[in-house]
Design brief:
The structure is a homodimer of 332-residue chains. The first copy, chain A, is an alpha/beta fold. Chain A has 12 helices and 12 strands. At the A-B interface, helix 4, helix 5, strand 2, helix 6 and helix 10 of A face helix 4, helix 5, strand 2, helix 6 and helix 10 of B. Chain A binds a DNA duplex (30 and 30 nucleotides) through helix 2 and helix 4.
Chain lengths: 332, 332
DNA sequence: GCGCTTTAATAACGCGCGTTACTTCCGTGT
DNA sequence: ACACGGAAGTAACGCGCGTTATTAAAGCGC
C-alpha cells in the first residue's frame, strides 16, 4: 500500500495525493477531488510510511531521551512528561537507558544520531553534574535534573531551595518551632539547596537555625531511623516536634522511630518528606505530607526547549528551575 | 555526510562502501580497500542514516510497545526487559502509553503502524482479559500480562497458581499451619490462581483449607488493615500465625495491624506479600518476604516471541506462563 | 478570435541507501 | 594464441515520499 496505489485508485497523480495528505498551502484542490482521494485512502487502508516521509522531507520527527535507568519512579515521570508533550507536536520519543554504563550511553547516543533525532534530552535520577560525550554536541541537547560540568549545555533543575523553604514554612505555620532536618548526603546539590531553604524559612520566622538539629542520613530508611532516634531521644523540651526528611524512604524510617516511642503522627511529631514517591507517601499511615520533585514538568519543559532549539530559536535562559509543589496529606 | 561522501573520500564507489558497512557475504573486498573506507568513515565522522537504510531494505528494525501507563512500577519493568532484549537484536523499541484511553490507544497504534513496526507488544498493569483494535492484526502481536478475550493472540502471563503455592509452601515450611490469606478482588485471575495454589499447598501438607481464613481485600493498605484485624482478633489458638497478602501494599496494612497489637514479625506472625514493589518490600521493617511478578522476564520473552514471529517462524506455544520467584527477606 | 491569468494537475528529481546485474582486469591452462 | 574463471569494483534501479517545475484546461476581458 503506497501513495501510488492510492493515486491510481482515485484516478489522480501521486503528487496530488501528497498535496492532500499534507494540506499543502497554495495547492488548489477542488473538494470533489479531495473527497475521492480520502475515500481511496480509506478503502485501501493506506497508511503513510513515516520513514520514507522523514527521508524525503529531511525531518525525522524524533527526539531522543537518554536516562540512566528506565525503571525507577523518577525516569518514568520524565518520560511521561516528555512523551505526552512530544506527542502533541506530532513527534515521537526515542528512549534509551545507559544503565550508568558509559559504553551503553555512547551506544545509545550513536543509535539516536543514526536515527537523526532532532534533539536530545539527557535525564538523571538525582540532581548532579554530568559530562556528556562529545557526540551530543552534534544535535540540540537539554539536560534534565542535572547540569553540564562544563557549563555549556542548557539545563532544567528542580528548585531545591524553594522546596526546603516550603517544607519548613509548612511546619512553622503549623506552630512548630523546633524542626529537625534529616538531610541527604550534605555534599550533593539537593542537600545544599534544601538546607539553604530550611534555614531561610527559620530566620524569616525569627528563629536562629540550630545546627545540631540537622543530621545527615544516607538516603535509606535505616539511616533515617537511626538519625530520628538521635533527635527524638533528646531531653524533653529540647526534642524537635517536627521532622523534615530528605526523602520519603527516610520519612519511612522516621515513622518507625516515632511510633516505636509511642508518639503519634502528626499529634506529637509532624513529618514532611521529599520526592513524593507515591508508593510510600500515599500508603504510609498516616499518609505523608511531602514535596514532589517536578519530574513530569521537567520532561515537558525539556521538550519545549528542544522544540525551540530545533526550530532555530535561541533560548532565553540557559538554566531553568522548576518549583517543587507541596502535597498536603496527613502527617502535619 | 552521506555514503557518497565517504566513497568519494576513499576513492571507491558508493556500492563498495555499502558492501563494507554491511559485511555483504560474497563481496570480495581486499583488506587495503576496506581499511581505506573505514578510515574515510572515521575521518568524516560519517553515520549511516537509519531511516534511509530502513526504507531501502524494507526493514524498519522497530518493535512497538503499548502499555496503559508508562509511569508505574510494572510497566517500567516490562519496558526494561523488552528494551534490553531488543537492543541485543540491534532493534529499537517504540514506546507509547494509552493512559487507558481507547482513543489514545488507537492513535498510538496508528503511529506504530506508520513507522512500520515489525511487531507489537501490548502490556497491561494487571492480569486480565483485553480486546485490541483490529489494526493490531496487521502486524505480529504478543500480549503481556493479559490475554486476548477472543483467544487468538499469543500471550505471556505470570504463573499465579505457582506463586500462591510457593508463598504458602514457604510458610508451611516455617512451621505455620494456620495461614490467613488476604486476597485481592476474588473475581480477578490473580486472586483465583493464587487461591488455587494456596489451597493446593495446604492439601499437600495434609491441611484442609479453612475458607474463613481467606478474606478479600481491595488492593489497598487500609482494606488489608481491616482484614488483618479481623483475622488477628480471633480467639487465641484460632488466630492465624501467618498472613499471605495479595500484594505488598496490603502487606503494609497488615504490618500495621500486627504491630498495633504488640505482636512481632516474624516471631509472632509471619507475613508474605506479592508483587515485590521494591519501594515497599525492601523498606518495610522488617523487610518483606514476597513474590515478584516477573515483569522483566515477560518483557524479554515478549521480544523473543516477536522476533520469532517477525522472522516467520511459528510459535510452539500460544500461551506462555512465567514463574514468580520468591524473594526471601525477613518477614518469615 | 486572441492574449492573459487562474485553476487543476502532473512529470520528474532527489532524499540516502540496499541490491542486482554488469564490466573490467588479471592470472591460468591448453 | 585463445577461452575461461575468479577477483574487484561499478552503474543503475528502486524503496515511498516531498517538492519544484511545467503543462493543460478553463475563465475573462476586449
Amino acid at each position: 500500500m503506497t501513495m501510488s496505489d492510492v493515486a491510481r485508485h482515485a484516478g489522480v497523480s501521486r503528487t496530488t495525493v501528497s498535496f492532500v495528505l499534507n494540506d499543502k498551502p497554495g495547492a488548489a484542490i477542488p473538494e470533489e477531488t479531495r473527497r475521492r482521494i480520502l475515500e481511496a485512502i480509506d478503502e485501501l487502508g493506506y497508511r503513510p510510511n513515516a520513514g520514507a516521509r522523514a527521508l524525503a522531507a529531511n525531518r525525522s520527527g524524533w527526539f531522543g531521551l537518554i536516562t540512566e535507568i528506565v525503571t525507577g519512579p523518577f525516569a518514568t515521570e520524565v518520560i511521561t512528561g516528555a512523551q505526552s508533550r512530544a506527542w502533541g507536536d506530532r513527534r515521537f520519543l526515542l528512549i534509551a537507558a545507559s544503565e550508568g554504563d558509559p559504553a551503553q550511553e555512547a551506544a545509545a547516543l550513536d543509535q539516536m544520531l543514526e536515527h537523526r533525532v532532532e534533539g536530545l534530552l539527557y535525564a538523571t535520577t538525582w540532581h548532579r553534574a554530568v559530562t556528556l560525550p562529545k557526540a551530543a554536541r552534534e544535535v540540540p541537547t537539554v539536560l534534565v535534573n542535572c547540569y553540564d560540568a562544563e557549563g555549556e549545555l542548557p539545563c532544567i533543575l528542580p528548585d531545591e531551595v524553594s522546596g526546603g523553604y516550603k517544607a519548613t514554612r509548612r511546619l512553622l505555620d503549623a506552630g512548630h518551632t523546633r524542626i529537625g532536618f534529616i538531610n541527604l548526603d550534605p555534599a550533593i546539590p539537593a542537600a545544599i539547596g534544601r538546607r539553604e531553604g530550611y534555614e531561610r524559612a527559620l530566620r524569616e520566622a525569627g528563629i536562629t537555625p540550630d545546627p545540631s538539629l540537622v543530621v545527615p542520613g544516607w538516603a535509606t530508611a535505616d539511616s533515617a531511623y537511626t538519625a530520628a532516634c538521635e533527635l527524638l531521644d533528646r531531653p524533653a523540651g529540647d526534642r524537635p516536634t517536627a521532622l523534615f526528611c530528605g526523602n520519603d524512604r527516610m520519612a519511612m524510617g522516621a515513622y518507625d522511630a516515632i511510633k516505636e516511642r509511642g508518639l503519634r503522627i502528626p499529634h506529637d511529631v509532624a513529618v514532611v518528606g521529599f520526592d513524593n514517591q507515591e508508593l510510600i507517601a500515599a500508603y504510609l499511615r498516616p499518609k505523608l505530607t511531602t514535596l514532589a520533585l517536578p519530574f513530569e514538568a521537567m520532561g515537558t519543559k525539556g521538550i519545549d526547549m528542544l522544540a525551540a532549539l530545533a526550530a532555530g530559536q535561541p533560548l532565553d535562559t540557559r538554566q531553568v528551575t522548576i518549583d517543587c509543589p507541596l502535597l498536603e496529606r496527613s502527617s502535619v
